[in-house]
Every structure is written in C-alpha cells, then in structure tokens.
Amino acid sequence: MSGTTRRRFLGTAAATGGLTLGATRPASAGKGAAAQTVAVLGGGVAGLTAAHELAERGFRVTVYERKALGGKARSMDVPGSGTGGRRPLPGEHGFRFIPGIYHNLPDTMRRIPFPGNPGGVHDNLVAPKEMLFARSGGREDIRIPLPLAGSTPAELTPDEIRRALTAVLDTAFNLPLHEALYFANRFLVFLTSCDERRDEVWERTPWWEFVRAGRMSDDYRRILAVGITRNIVATKAEEASTRTVATLMEAFVFNLLGRGADGPLDRILNAPTNEAWIDPWVTYLRSLGVEFRVGWTVRDLTLGAGMITGAVVEEPGGARRTVTADHYISAMPVEHARRTWNSAVRAADPQLAECDRLETDWMTGIQFYLTERTPILHGHLNLIDSPWSLTAIAQAQHWPGHDFPADFGDGTVADCLSVDVSEWDRPGILYGRTAKQCTRSEVAREVWAQLKAALNDSGRTVLKDSVLHSWFLDPAVDGLGTPHPVNEEQLLIHPVGTFHHRPQSATRIPNLFLAGDYVAVPIDLATMEGANSSARQAVNALLEQTGSTAERCTVTPLYRAPELEALKRHDRTRYRLRLPNVFDVG
Asked: What average pLDDT does the segment 503-519 reach?
C-alpha cells in the first residue's frame, strides 16, 4: 500500500470518529445488532478496547485470550511471595507509562467505572514530579523537573522552537553549543516537513543518519541517538525510522508546551496495573455481557466462500475446537496473529503477508524488591550509559493507597524498583555476556550491577546490596543461557521502511478485522495508545460493514500545530520539485 493511500485511510478513520464518547452507553448497533456476535481473538489492550466499544453498541462479544487479560499491560503476582494474609508481591512485564500525548486510551479509561472516582480509572493516573538521566563513570546525573500541567504558549515560530530546544540541550544536557544548535535545526527540519516527505523520505532514513550522530560527540550519540531510540522506542538508532522517532519527539515537545495534551507529560498508575485498571475494566465489560475464555489459544482461521467461518482454538486442557461468530477481530500481537493466517486467508488479503516483514525485539521487565525505600527520585530513571539500556521507576512512593510492607509480600518489602531492559544483545559489565546468554539469575545480578554503576557513582550510595530482598523476571522469557532463548511477549520495533508494511484495520475478508499496535494508526509507535486506536478503527470498520447506525468511535490523531501548517504546505511544493526542506542545511 502506498503512503498516500494509508494516509487517506487514517484520515478517514479519524474524521468519521464523531464526538468523544462519554461515560454513558452509545447508541445501539442497529440493523439487527442484538443478534450479531463478535469473536475477539486476544485479550490485551486492543482486544479489551474492541470488546468495550462493541459491547456498548449492543454486540454480543466473546474474548479469547491464551494467557491473561490485559496482555503485556497487566500486572501479575509473584508466585508464593505473599504470607500472613498479605497479597503476593506485584510483578509486571514492564512499568506503565501513559503520557499526555495519548488521547484515545485516556478516553477509554474515563469510561471504566472505579469506586469513588468521578473520572473512572482515569482518576488513578498520577504525575511524577521529575525524571533523571543517570550517567555512569562519575559523570553528574541530569535531573529534570517536570511541569504538572503545561500552559498554552504564545504563537510558535521556527526561531522560538529552535531557541527553546537549543537552550534545553545546552543547559540540561550540557551538550556543546554547536551540537545543540545542529540538533535543534534537524528537529526543525522534521517539524516543517510535509507528510509526503515524512512518509517517503524520513521513513526510509535511519535516525542515526538524520541527526548525523557519527559526526558528533559521545554525549550527543548517547543522549540524542542511542538514548532516544533504544530506551524509548526499543530499536537501534542505526536502524530506527526517523519518521517514527521524530514523530514521538514532536508529540512530547508539544505536550511539554501544553499543546494538544490530555495531561502532563509523564503519568503512571497509583497502584498495580490490574488493581488500578485491568480488573475494573474486565468487571465493567462483564456487566455489559462480554464473555471471556482465558487459557484458550487461537491456532487457525478457517475460510469459506470468502468469509471467515470459524477460529480453531485450543482449550486449556489441550483439546481443539472451532468457535464461530458473525465477525472476528484479530487482536493479538503481530508475532502471534500472523501464525493464525493460513495460506488461504493470506491469499484473500495480500496485506496480511506484508505483516511478515514487520519486526519485533525484546523489551522486558524485571522487578527488584527492597527492604527499604530507596531515595532515587520521584519519577522515571533513564540510565543512558548502561549497556543494556535500562529505564526504571521506584513504585511504592506513587501508590499512596498502599502500605507496601503491610499489603504485599512477607512484611519486610518496602519498595519495588521496576526496571525495563531494552538491549538484550550487548555484553554487560559483570559477566561480559549478552542478556540472552545469561541465566535468569545472572540477568538479575547484571541488571543490579548496571543500576549501581549508574546510581552509586556520584558520591552517595543509592542502592545497597543489603536491602535487596528478591527479584522477579517476566516469565514470558525462557531458555536464557541456552542456544535458543525465547520471549513470548516481544515488542514491535520500527526499522526504516516498516511503516509501509503495516496493515489497515479493515481487511478484504468482509468479516475479519485487525487490531493491535502493529496496525496503521495515527500514532506511529508500538504503544497502548496504538493498540487502543487500532481497536477503535476495527470497530468502525465493522460498523461500516454491517451498515450499523451506531455512533462511530473517535480516533484522535496526534496534535498538529496550526502555526506550522503553512511551512508544511510550502515544503510540499518543494518536495514535489525535488528540493530539500527550506531549513535543511545538511
């Protein structure tokens, strides 16, 4: 599919969204919707969102999930860790991060009832006060306060944007002035680039090349090339699409400026994810009549007369059966979904085969349970010099409704330091091996060593071995230290060119629809927002297919600054004349 066709589809999906849905139930599906059934294949954020939107419109929905509802977004119990009537210690695939650039997911959260919360689950979001870029080798850490709410700035101009970004890079990150000026100019090039240049040139340009990282200082490369791509997008700077990386940066910059934001830049949940969000969501969906089949694994789709006639599933006991519905929404991660598309299904819609060209990588969490509160900071840590590209957050301080020792574990655990490991193929500092080459216990010791190398190198001891109670590594990772390690819950990554292989939510099979963070959506990044948006698109496509009169789901795009639209139009003319962006000085 061409970039132009994809943009037309996304624009149509967003434009037909209608008004933002409130907490009340939308109009019913109409045209016989009460008799129509939908099988949602996958119970992660995409699947639960699809079930939510469909059930509120009167469809009969059954969700089939192989592992646990919530998918990679869920929290999980650490087996055998709770004693004396306390709950098990909280584990997770990775910590939750719900920035203000999200709009569709927060809308869903507002519509999930939660006792005592007028704004539903959304009221369980809290904003950390700061973030830290931790440096190793004795270099001073970079501590940045975060505004809780941005104020609407004066009219933006290219010069104001350039000067503001240069000041941040020069002051906060202490980059050489000429490098800060150069990066600010490169970012301005992207901000004023037309959609065609973004989709057709910057999508095929690696971020490393776009920001000329090879010419710059080590700090420039670590912070603005490797740090942004590996720690946030979980892909390599030398491979990552400029379109993806810069689109994310653009959204965060506007968020900081108070433009088009749902809330503060950094938001997290005020309790373990299932308690604060997933469990109330499932309870609400059950009240709408949604049925759940957990432990049921989708193995295949059957096709007849150009339609899906059934989904072959494996029940918890291992027996196989075929389940049927009027419509099917495939809401599994791409690496699992494409295994269910047999040759007949793929032949019916060539875009499914294109998904084989999408790539995933490892970005997996480990939690360290501590017997003392750790005085790190009130927010996220980005350990930009760590070989395994670690990010982390100390969670107990953000869960005001919990007395951690009284509520969790054996009564001695006071905090949970949740860490995401983004780089699994680079040697560490303790064993000289990659994370995949280490055993599970070696991974834990290596991550702990890298945390201490970054946090204990500036004259104070932040992490002490004596307070380490235990650790928990995501059980989706298996076979570590063997020739064939596996990770059942990987993350979609964004090497150059992959945007054009992402499918639409509607397929050429009239009763099959796609939802998941790999689907083409306004936010070009594997995120919960992308999963939520894709499910809304899938439901809208289903409503169109059935001729339903129900209100369409909103699909809110990322913010576009109106002041820059004239420059983008000018750039479109230049692009069609094969001229560079007016700010592109090479």
From this structure: 97
Which pTM does this prediction carry? 0.91
- How far from chain centre, in Å, is Cα 144? 23
Got the DSSP string for 435-465?
A: TTTS-HHHHHHHHHHHHHHHHSSSSS--S-G
Length of the chain: 586
Q: Per the structure, how many domains does the chain have? A: 3
| Section 458-480 average pLDDT | 92
Tell me the residue range of the domain where 174 lies.
154-260
Which DSSP string corresponds to 340-381? G--HHHHHH-HHHHHGGG--EE--EEEEEEESS---S-SEEE
Residue 281 lies in a domain: no
Are 367 and 482 in the same domain? yes
Do 450 and 471 fall into the same domain? yes
Are the CB atoms for 278 and 320 separated by under 8 Å? Answer: no
Please indicate, yes or no, whether residues 381 and 330 belong to a single structural domain of this protein: no
Q: Is the pLDDT of residue 118 over 90?
A: yes
Q: Mean pLDDT in the chain? A: 89
**Domain end position, chosen among 216, 240, 260:** 260
Exposure b/e, 397-415, CB count within 10 A at least 16 = b: bbbeebebbebbbeeebbb
More confident residue, 253 or 553: 553
Please check whether residue 89 is in contact with residue 60, taking contact to mean a CB–CB distance below 8 angstroms. no
Please tell me the predicted confidence (pLDDT) of residue 8. Answer: 33
Extract the tokens encoding 102: 């999200």
Q: Is 116 exposed, middle or buried (0-12, 13-18, 19+ CB in 10 A)?
A: exposed
| pLDDT tens-digit map of 328-361 | 999 999 999 999 999 999 999 999 999 999 999 9
